[in-house]
Design a protein that fits this description.
This protein is mainly α. It has one domain (about 1-90). It has two helices and no strands. The protein has helices spanning about 1-25, 30-90. Helix 1 packs antiparallel against helix 2. It starts with a helix and ends with a helix.
């Protein structure tokens, strides 16, 4: 998962650099490099979103696995408690 986080950070850093150039544009003259920076920002945003969705998907799966393991422990604990209660009732 840390690789995905690194990819998100890299995309956001690229976006930030491209947006900095875009924000300094001068609309009174042609600046193809600034227009290219705007395209780069869009591509970086798209990449960050892709990585975030993948990260979310991975995290949701891990959360479900963790919750299932917790539920199994709780079930075992409840069963053990019920058995102890039944044993005490017999005495």
């Amino acid at each position: 998962m840390s690789a995905l986080v690194k990819q998100v950070r890299a995309a956001v850093e690229e976006m930030s650099a491209a947006l900095s150039l875009w924000e300094m544009r001068d609309n009174t003259r042609a600046q193809p490099e600034v227009r290219g920076a705007a395209n780069s920002a869009i591509h970086s945003i798209d990449a960050a979103l892709r990585h975030l969705h993948e990260l979310r998907h991975t995290l949701v799966g891990q959360i479900r696995e963790s919750d299932d393991a917790t539920a199994g422990r709780v079930d075992a604990l409840l069963a053990r408690h019920a058995a102890e209660q039944a044993e005490e009732a017999v005495r």
